[in-house]
Amino acid sequence: MTGHEHDASMDESDGVERTDGGTAGGTDDVALDPWGSSTVEDYRKLFEEFGIESFDDVLDSVSQPHYLMRRGVIFGHREYERVLEGMADHNAAVLSGFMPTGDPHIGHKLVFDEIIWHQRHGADAFSLIADLEAHSARGLDWDEIETHARDYILSLLALGFDPEAGELYRQSENREVQDLAFELGIETNLSELQAIYGFDGETDVSHMQSVVTQMADILYPQLEEPRPTVIPVGPDQDPHVRLARDLAARMRTFKVTEAYASFETDESNRELLGAVYEQLDGEDEAVVRCEAAAEFVAEQYSAPELESSLRAAGKEPLRHRVRFLDRNADEETFTALIDAIDGEKRVYEGHIDAFDLGRTDAHELAREIEVEHGGYGFYPPSSIYHRFMTGLTGGKMSSSIPASHISLLDDPQTGYEKVKSATTGGRDTAEKQRELGGEADDCPVYELYAYLLADDDDDLATTVYEECVTGERLCGDCKEQAAVLMREFLNDHQEKREEVEPLLDSLDIGL
Ligand code: TRP
Ligand code: SF4
To answer: Is residue 191 located within the same domain as residue 209?
Structure first.
């Protein structure tokens, strides 16, 4: 663990931003550390190394996508499809949390907007103040936490979060979250936290507790009933997302997989068996038997383990089936599942095979029986990831460097001036700029337009970009226009903050 000076939600971007969803070269350095000074120099690595998927793949399925989605600021996701389906059925949730370590700033605004967008599109919305985490991982005292927490919530409300429809809480006040955290702690051990977060013998227990608390935050929307949930965060939070997805699975009573024979196989052999089955099935009228499949495997593939399992199974038919593996079931629940499976089934020591059930139905059934018998039935939480903003002074946007970022509480005139003195992607002289065009892709000012100032107006964002790269636009005017927009935005936002103050005071969230 490194120091506490770093603000994870907007930092980390030394990398070169592209509006088209790609990124420029850069080094191979990818480190994801929620409390450290992790850097994301090449977003592509996140796909390759950590299995985050490209948002481009799902963008077409989003109806009325947010401008952050359209402009590639939201660049990645994990299983977001499930949330889109859930939202269509009014059965989905969104949740994100904020450590109250300083003023809310324009980096946090991205996440506020993402929560609000999902709320407006039918998701049940949750937002929380991670006060336990701020206290244990960042050492903030409770007075500071109180002040910052109010400021975060005021901005969230001012931007349009509906607290009647959604839920706001602080970790320290939410008993259900703490109870769930305790349960999740039973499934989490020290070696795992060491591997994921680099914790060691010096790490204090409260810091570890703040991890399981965040796990509980992430699963909290599913406490009443399981449903698809999206967690909008920066990529630095991905280790948390991965652990939460793991824990969601570990808490399940049953695991559902597909199989072709009664013996267990690993994922790759299962795929191989699927292929073998497809090639042999229907070749002649007779059923495919394991011993015949063994011959086929011996001829066509080199998979000695699979081959010997098939030989051992002898005359057993090779047939597609869904398999319910017993993870945490007691006898009563196991029996209830057996009874609930329609059609042909076979019961084994730790699993049940069903021959007439589709995969989706099987998943639903497993969840239903689990929930009926007191289990949680969690879906693995989904996530979406946004790019970090570049600092106005170039390099990282960091809350410890005031000139590098714009706080939502900055005086509007200060905001104006910070934009006016920002670094740009412009050329040395106006002449060169006219000739070569500016480098909008490397310009913090262009980012301000794309991430915030252009708001829903794609034409404005495109015009700035086009005019910049063709040399029609010069940085002085461009910054003036941006600075004025920033001043207006801050004015407007701060007015709205004042308006929602009574609303905040009427909320029962322990502030
Ligand atoms: N760890 C997050 C941060 O550093 C805050 C947080 C706590 C959070 N619980 C969460 C974020 C749940 C997303 C979901 O800011
Ligand atoms: Fe950036 Fe605008 Fe200059 Fe282009 S013209 S480099 S977008 S400040």
So the answer is: yes
Residues 193 and 306 in one domain: no
Residues 246, 313 within the same domain: no
Ligand with an atom nearest the CA of residue 421: 2
On whether both 244 and 268 belong to a single domain, the answer is no
CATH classification of the domain holding 123:
3.40.50.620
Q: Could you tell which of 7, 196, 212, 217 is best to mutate to test the pocket of ligand 1, judged by most ligand atoms within 8 Å of the CB?
A: 217
Q: Looking at this protein, which amino acid is placed at residue 500?
A: V
Alpha-carbon distance of 76 to 55, in angstroms, equals 4
pLDDT, one tens digit for every residue, the chain (511 residues): 333 333 433 433 333 333 333 333 333 455 677 776 555 667 888 888 889 999 999 999 999 999 999 999 999 999 999 999 999 999 999 999 999 999 999 999 999 999 999 999 999 999 999 999 999 999 999 999 999 999 999 999 999 999 999 999 999 999 999 999 999 999 999 999 999 999 999 999 999 999 999 999 999 999 999 999 999 999 999 999 999 999 999 999 999 999 999 888 888 999 999 999 989 887 666 789 999 999 999 999 999 999 999 999 999 999 999 999 999 999 999 999 999 999 999 999 999 999 999 999 999 999 999 999 999 999 999 999 999 999 999 888 887 788 899 999 999 999 999 999 999 999 999 999 999 999 999 999 999 999 999 999 999 999 999 999 999 999 999 999 999 999 999 999 999 999 999 999 999 898 8
Ligand 2 site-directed mutation target among 16, 478, 480, 485, most atoms within 8 Å of CB:
478
Name the amino acid, one letter, at 399.
Answer: S
> Is residue 288 within 8 Å of residue 339, measured between CB atoms?
no
Ligand 2 centre to CA of 423 (Å) is 9
d(CA 14, CA 396): 6
Half-sphere exposure of 227 (CA within 13 A, CB side): 21
Give the ligand whose atoms come closest to the C-alpha of residue 479. Answer: 2
DSSP 389: P
Residue 422 covered by a domain: yes
One domain, residues 98 and 227: yes
The answer to whether residues 347 and 414 belong to one domain is no
* Contact status, residue 105 vs residue 10, Cβ threshold 8 Å: yes
How many domains does the chain fold into? Answer: 3
What letter would DSSP give residue 95? E
Ligand nearest to the CA of 437: 2
Residue 116: what residue type? Answer: I
Ligand 2-lining residues (CB < 6 angstroms): 424-426, 438-440, 443, 445-446, 464, 468, 473, 475, 478-479
Give the ligand whose atoms come closest to the C-alpha of residue 19.
2
Tokens, residue 509: 């969230």
**Cα–ligand 1 centroid distance for 463 (angstroms):** 36
Among 18, 418, 445, say which to mutate for ligand 2: greatest number of ligand atoms within 8 Å of CB.
Answer: 445
Clarify whether residues 231 and 121 are in a common domain.
Answer: yes
90 and 225 share a domain?
A: yes
